[in-house]
Amino acid sequence: MPHIEKAETKRTKDGKPVPSYRVRWTEKARDEHGRPIPFNPGRPDGRAKEVNRQRTFRSKEAAQEYCDELNAQRHKVVAASPSELRKLGDQALGYFAHQYFEGLAGAVKPRYARETEAVYKRYIADAFATRAVASITAADIRRFRADLLSPRPKRSYRPDEPVEMVTLARTTIKPAYDVLRRILDVAVVDGAIPANPVHSVPLGRTTIDADTPEFEPRPLTAEQVGAVTDHIARVQGYPIYALAVTTSAYSGLRAGELAGLNVGDVGLPEVEGRNGFLRVTRTRRAVRGGFETGTPKSKRSRRAVPIDAWLADDLRRYLSEVHPFGNPDHADYDPNAPLFPGRYATGETMPDGLTQDAIRPERAAVVDPEVRRKNGAADRRNATYDPTVTCIRPAPSEGYKWSVPINPGNVADHYFEPALRAVGLPHSRWHDLRHTFAVMSLSAGEHYMQVSKWLGHASYVTTLNVYADYIAENEGGKQAPLTRPLAEPARQQPAPQASNVVPLFGRRLG
Predict the structure, then answer these.
(1) Domain range spanning residue 332?
(2) Does residue 367 register a pLDDT over 50?
(3) Within its chain, how far is the Cα of 433 from the centroid?
């Protein structure tokens, strides 16, 4: 039971000492998940450890009010069943968070479950993990919301750097707020609290969107894509990654979908000069220690994306002449091999005879078969890059790791972004290659619902919201001209005409 103690202080008023009042109470000791710690480790369901708490107030009335609040919280919730020894409302929020995370297993993707738990540990656990769930009020939620919206020191890994204050983005604030709401929903369903206090404190869009710039895609033109890929292939010396950039810009695949492509996912016609397709059935994402294979973003993301004939021909030559497992006529053909390879990382153990200095060519490979046959591999980097031909099979010293898929994030940082700067283009993200495909397709007259299907959007409404400005006239864009408003000229009354009718009444006799 909480109780009040009077404590002497050094404060005085009118020459008399002014006391303070402490509220002392005992509560269960809890672990990082908010679960009670057993007094005897051998009996986890037995008596729990207890810790002493106190809080000081300046007036006795405030202390009594807080004491009454603690007493009310202890008797606020009735146990779910008579056999329960602990009241659910006395359980900490971390207890229900643990239940919520356990319930995510099998219902969502493992990546989403991990990211959700990481959000909880970073933004919620310190404030609420050990708090009894019945003691969390709307005022606590308002303070939590204010803390999310307030500027905070930017994380830095160097102690000598000056402190920089930053504000969390909406993509960070909203997930943290939603995770807290869902955890408290579990407590409501279990009967620990009568209502979720988060519902009475809405986050609000205007609160966190006022200073956030509106999302704006930065698509590239066909000429800009050509300049960037030419630089990657000819100057940087990585024609395979130039082909990967071209494939992204002309198929609209997401980064994880491009990394998820295997050799067997490329559908090529039997003869050259005809369209092919890319089959999207999986995604890959770089994680610590390797890659994580998952499913596409939504049901509609499982799709077949058509590719133009020239790109299908480039991919055919790439698979038959470059990829060691891509030629179906060879015995080492492997349809499950990644379509685009990764590279050996700095410090990674490499095969014999391969060093970090040897895997960084400065010029592109010779692409003319005759030059390649006559001059051999030693003269590869002395010829001009031909964008109509993919590339030849790279030497082992070029360091491609064919058993590992491409990491679009690394390619964007080390090849794509430097190429943009080299050709004088502004910063673009790898995802803008997806926007490039959408804009070029819509501008060429493709129907927006067809483009939405190729992009794998869950609804064509998403396509309209993002790319409405690029829809062709005959597909719903601006096509009917409106005339200039002109004042209608004043109508003139017709002049009266002479009549041959002689009136019989009212005639004046002279």
Answers:
(1) 222-347+355-443
(2) no
(3) 16
Going through 331-430 in order, the beta strands assigned E by DSSP cover 341-343, 400-405
Q: What is the pLDDT of residue 464?
A: 86
Q: What is the mean pLDDT of residues 117-121?
A: 93
Enclosing H/E stretch for 32: none
Q: How far is CA 111 from its chain centroid?
A: 12
pLDDT tens for residues 184-216? 999 999 888 889 999 999 887 655 554 555 557
Whole-angstrom distance, CA of residue 195 vs CA of residue 134: 10
* Residue 402 host element (H or E): strand 400-405
Residue 105 CB contacts under 8 Å (≥ 6 apart), including other chains: 113
Q: Give the integer Cα–Cα distance in Å for 181 and 175.
A: 10
Shared domain for 147 and 181, answered yes or no, is: yes
| DSSP 8-state secondary structure symbol assigned to residue 120 | I
Mean pLDDT of 169-192: 91
Q: Which two tokens stand for residue 471?
A: 């829809």
Query: pLDDT tens, 5-41?
Result: 888 888 888 888 888 999 998 888 877 656 678 888 8
Mean pLDDT of 315-332: 91
Are 280 and 414 members of one domain? yes
**3-state SS of 290-328?**
EEEEECCCCHHHCEEEEECHHHHHHHHHHHHHHCCCCCC
What residues contact 278, with CB distance under 8 A and at least 6 apart? 247, 251, 253, 261, 265, 266, 267, 304, 305, 307
Residue 388 C-alpha from the chain's centroid? 35
SS3 category, 6: strand
Spacing of C-alpha 360 from chain mean position? 32
Clarify whether residues 287 and 149 are in a common domain. Answer: no
Q: Is 263 left (phi over 0), alpha (psi -120 to 50) or beta?
A: alpha
Here the CATH number for the domain that contains residue 126 is 1.10.150.130
Q: What pLDDT does residue 41 have?
A: 80
CA-based nearest residue to 187, from 131, 126, 134, 137: 134
Looking at the structure, tell me whether residues 126 and 254 fall in a common domain.
no
